[in-house]
Amino acid sequence: MISLKGCYFPRGVVLYAVYFYLRYTVSYRDLEEIMAAVTDT
Q: Cys staple from 9: which of 13, 18, 29, 31, with CB 3.0 to 4.6 Å?
């Protein structure tokens, strides 16, 4: 199990960003934008 203790974003959002990072060729800046968009909704 992945420990995300002390993480700012919820577990689902972090796993969503990791999925995008591994599945598609995105930069850390793109991931920041994706995570910001997901948490805004």
A: 13
Per-residue three-class SS string for 1-41: CCCCCCCCCCHHHHHHHHHHHHHCCCCHHHHHHHHHHHHHC
Q: Which residue matches tokens 């920041």?
A: 32
Under 8 Å CB-to-CB from 31, ≥6 apart: which residues? Answer: 17, 20, 21
Q: Letter for the amino acid at 30?
A: D
Give the side-chain half-sphere CA count within 13 A for 32: 3
**C-beta of residue 17 within 8 angstroms of C-beta of residue 34:** yes
